[in-house]
Amino acid sequence: MLTKKELRAEIRRRKARYSREALDAFSAAIAERLLQHPRLTGTEGAVLLYHALPDEVDLNRLLTPQGTELLLPKVTGPDSMELRRYLSPEHLQTGAYGIQEPTGPLFADYDRITTAIIPGMAFDREGHRLGRGKGYYDRLLPQLKRAYKIGVCFPFQYFTSPIPTTETDVAMDEVIFG
Length: 178
Prior knowledge:
3 helices
């Protein structure tokens, strides 16, 4: 089994083989599946999304509040992240790592989050997730006790064999790749 560091390097090599158009097509297919997902249609409570880095699954088409409270993460320090309400594209600003981050009100009632869409470098069929190595989601996920967690990734980031994890890693309830 590869180490976490080796697996991250392998994923970066795999991503480099795909054009922006191919990655956009994968993102569109994943977003379409999520738009039809029962956890996102007519859901009550809040939904956690994310604004993608250039090499992540882009789910911006899901950022259309239609009666659902949408949340996005905002990096607040080298090892801290908070959640804020997403209001509109006008309420985003470039933050850490060049990511568009919300300027809406702070959100801290994690028990109201019913669904969380989570990016990752790799996922396996058991829902285990490998992040980028900074630990932002590793610190957030244990707090999302009531949320149904959906990992999203490109097809080459999904593994049928186990990926390296630790006992503190929080598994996803489902992984969507496409």
